[in-house]
Amino acid sequence: MRKPIIAGNWKMNNTAAQGVALVNELKPLVADAECDVVVCVPFTDIPAVSEALKGSNIALGAQNVHFAEKGAYTGEISAAMLKEYGVKYVIIGHSERRQYFGETNETVNKRMHAALAAGLIPIVCVGESLEERETGKTEQVLSVQIEEGLKGLEDVSAIVIAYEPVWAIGTGKTATAEQANETIGFIRKKCAEVFCPKCAEKVRIQYGGSMNAKNCKELMAMPEIDGGLIGGASLKAQDFSQIVHYNK
Question: Does the keyword Cytoplasm apply (predicted)?
Answer without folding.
Answer: yes
